[in-house]
Amino acid sequence: MLVSVDMGEMKVSWWKHEDWLAVWLGAATLAAIPLGLRPALPKFQWDVSSYPAPFHPGNLQASLALMAILAAMALPGALALGVRAGRFLAGFSVVFALSWVAQWIAGSSLAAKWGIEYVIFALLIGLFISNVPGAPAWLVEAARTEYYIKTGLVIMGATILFADIVEAGFLGMLQAVLVVGVVWYFTFWVCRRFRLDDEFAAMISTAVSICGVSAAIAACGAIQGDKRRLSYVASVVLIVAVPMIVLQPWLVKTFGIPDAVGGAWLGGTLDTTGSVVAAGALISEAAMKIGTIVKFAQNLLIGFAAFALSVWWTMKKSAANGQKADPKMIWERFPKFVIGFAAASLVYSFLVDANVVKQTKAAIGAFRTSWFAMAFVSIGLETKFRDLLTMEEGRPFYAFLTGQAANVIWTLLLAYAIFGGYFFAAPRI
């Protein structure tokens, strides 16, 4: 008999649970790539002089081949989730095409100069379709945000290697822990002051304090939160990130903030590694490297945060129902894709040959980026602009802004204290 997992009032077999489907899909990808699944990858970088490059027949052929591979790999899981094959494949092809356009726009030299990533354009494209012409039902059915992003997160685990963890070092981890601990509790307190319930507060606090959308996904899974609220938080995270990517490097240069401090500030406040790299590059190579190390250290905390939230939420609900929390209940709430994320990191750190890791890095990165890009398009397709300011009278939006403002100030102070040479020797990178 199959074990079932309680999903509100509906019970599903454990192997049909979205988290496990993402683990299977991510594991299949990470097993297939070293065994030879290394298709020609589309290229998106271009400037005015090389404008036709992304539309070269060979590049379009590589894009179509990648789409076919991803669709074939995603289809079994989609069928397990109850989606009709024809509608899913039709919608999937459109979601992929929209994500391709987002990566093409982000690949321009102008977007690269300002550090605006594909995730921003993917969200904006999805939002435009959802809010202007309106997304048809068959397209929304293929907008499987969590399925796509959880798969991307499992694959991302293979890029977080033990050697990199060592390189992140004491200073990066120290800042990450202090940022996450203080900002999470402060933002949760702010959410309470704005009269938000604990579910909404947990998702917003985790998104602000750790790494944006990925952390919010983990938090939502840990507390089995409302998917509509998750989509809302993800949209706000990316919309608020746009001015930060541009303004923070400008502030570093304008006020003469040391490069190491500026990089650490970016790493602790911007929500994706790519945006940290791009924004850091606008300052200096040292800022870019330190920012990446700090962001990397924060990414490592996703799994710990998910586990802590699972335990806390289970105990909270059990106490409210007059029950005693047990390990089984915690396990049921724990987001299983985090296991895939950790397993991928361990396997690629210790069991896969270093040369193979190096040779497969580009393919793994392309698959991860493709899933992420489709996830952010899906977020846009599921989000209405009016919800950003009207949901619960706009209180979640203002709570998020307050928490993010505190995050920016606190992280800058920490960056000065830790990377400014006051208490520790300033790193030489």
Which labels suit this protein?
429 residues, two-stranded antiparallel ribbon, globular, disordered N terminus
Task: Give me a quick take on this structure.
By secondary structure, this protein is an all-alpha fold. It is built from 20 helices and two strands.
Structural commentary:
This protein is mostly helical. The protein is built from 20 helices and 2 strands. A hairpin with a 2-residue loop joins β1 and β2. The N terminus is likely disordered.
The radius of gyration over CA amounts to 21 Å
Q: Tell me the series of helices and strands, N- to C-terminal.
A: EEHHHHHHHHHHHHHHHHHHHH
Number of helices: 20
Report the sheet-strand fraction: under 5%
The major beta sheet can be summarized as: 2 strands, antiparallel
Tell me the overall shape. globular
Query: How far apart lie the N and C ends?
Result: 57 Å
Could you state the oligomeric state of the chains shown? single chain
Q: Strand arrangement, largest sheet?
A: 1-2
How many strand elements?
Answer: 2
Low-confidence stretches: 1-12
What is the average per-residue confidence, as pLDDT, rounded to a whole number? Answer: 79
Overall helicity: over 70%
Structural class: mainly alpha
